Amino acid sequence: MKHISVLLEEAVDALNLKEESIVVDATLGFGGHSSNILKRIKKGRLFAFDQDSEAIGYSTDLLNKIGTNFTIIKSNFVNMKEELQKRDVFEVNGVLFDLGVSSVQLDEDYRGFSYHKDAKLDMRMDQDSDFSAYNVVNEYSKDELALIFKKYGESKFANNIAKKIVEYRENKNIETTLELVDIIKSAVPAKFRVKKHPAKQIFQAIRIEVNHELDVLDKALKDAVSLLSVGGRVVVITFHSLEDKMVKNYFKEISYVDPKIKGLPNIPADMLPDFKIIKGAKPTKEEIEFNRRSRSAKLRIIERVK
Predict the structure, then answer these.
(1) What phi-psi label fits residue 31: left (phi over 0), alpha (psi between -120 and 50 degrees) or beta?
(2) Fold agreement (8-98+214-304, 107-211)
(3) Closest CA to 183 of 137, 134, 117, 144
(4) In this predicted model, what pLDDT tens digit does every residue of 136-166 receive, in sequence order?
(5) Rg (CA), the chain
(6) 74 DSSP β-pair partners
(7) What is the Cα–Cα distance from 47 to 250, expressed in whole angstroms?
(8) Where are the domains of the chain?
(9) Spatial separation of the C-alpha atoms in residues 213 and 210, rounded to whole Å
(10) Cα separation of 40 and 3, whole Å?
(11) How confident is the model at residue 6 (pLDDT cuts 50, 70, 90)?
(12) 129 Cβ partners below 8 Å, 6+ apart?
C-alpha cells in the first residue's frame, strides 16, 4: 500500500512543533503527515481523525512503530471540537488539514474515485455511510445535477452533462464509473476533451457532494482556529480552487487589519487581529515531477498571535 504525502516536510515544518506540542491531524489517511508529526512530539500528543476504516488500520500499525502518544478518532473532522472536548482537550498547538482524496483511495478500483478505472459508483470517504455517488447520479434531478456540476466542478458543460445523464437513466440506472465517463464524454465537444479529461471536474463535483466536503470544511476551519493556543498554527493543504478560495478568504477575514491603522506606531492590542497569515508554499518542480498529483496543491498557514 503506497501513499505519497504531498508537501510533507513543508506542512509539518509549518506547524512549528515543540516536543510537548498537542497536535491534530484532521486528515490521517495513510499516516504520512501523522508519522512525521509523531516523531517530533515525543512528550506531546497527536489526535488524528479519519472515517476510513482501512486507512485507520494501516496508520495505527505505522504509528505504533514510532510511539504510543497518539489517539485515532474514527470521525469526520467536522466533529473535531466535540470529539476533543469529550477527551478533555480544549486547546491545541497545531491543526493540519490535508484535503482531497489519498493516492491509495484513487488507486483502489473498488472505491470508485477514479475516472480511469471501472468500478461501482461509490466515492464514499466513510464506507459505513449509506449515501454514495450512485445515489447522486441516479436519484438527483437534472437541475440538481447541473447545480452541483457548476458549483463544485465549475464545468462549462454542466447542463448538457446533466441532461445526458437523465436521458440515459430513462433506460437503465448508471452503475459504474466508466459507464458515467462515457456519458460525460458524449456531452462534451471533442475539441474540449484534448487538454483536460472531461470527467475530471464532474467526478470532483460528485465526490464533494457525496462527502459534503465544503460544508464540513467551513465548520472545521472555524473550530480549528478556535482551539489554537497562542503561537499555535492551522496548516491547510488544498487541491482545488473551491477549497483554496474558502481557506484563503477565511484566513484573510480573521487576520484583517484596518488600513487606517496599518503602519501606525503603538497600535492598541485590542485593535489588532488575533491571527496572522504565515507565508505558504507550493510543491517544487521536483515534487511535481515525482508525484503528478501534487501539481495543484497549495499550502496555507495561519497563526494565533494573541
Answers:
(1) left
(2) no
(3) 137
(4) 999 999 999 999 999 999 999 999 999 999 9
(5) 21
(6) 50
(7) 24
(8) 8-98+214-304, 107-211
(9) 8
(10) 21
(11) confident
(12) none
| Residue pair 214/76 in contact by the 8 Å Cβ criterion | no
CATH of domain 8-98+214-304: 3.40.50.150
Residues 6 or more apart whose CB falls under 8 angstroms from that of 43 comprise 19, 20, 69
Mean pLDDT of 19-42: 96
Amino acid in the structure at residue 239: F
Reading across the β-sheet that carries 22-25, which strands appear in turn?
70-74, 45-50, 22-25, 92-98, 228-238, 298-304, 275-281
Q: What is the average per-residue pLDDT within 9-32?
A: 96
Distance CA 2, CA 108 (A): 11
Contact predicate 37/17, CB 8 Å? yes
**Alpha carbon of residue 108 to chain centroid:** 18
Q: What are the tens digits of pLDDT across the range 99-146?
A: 967 655 655 667 888 898 899 999 998 888 999 999 999 999 999 999
β-pairing verdict for 298-304 and 228-238? antiparallel
Q: How many CB atoms lie within 10 A of CB 13?
A: 15
Has domain 107-211 been given CATH number 1.20.1540.10? no
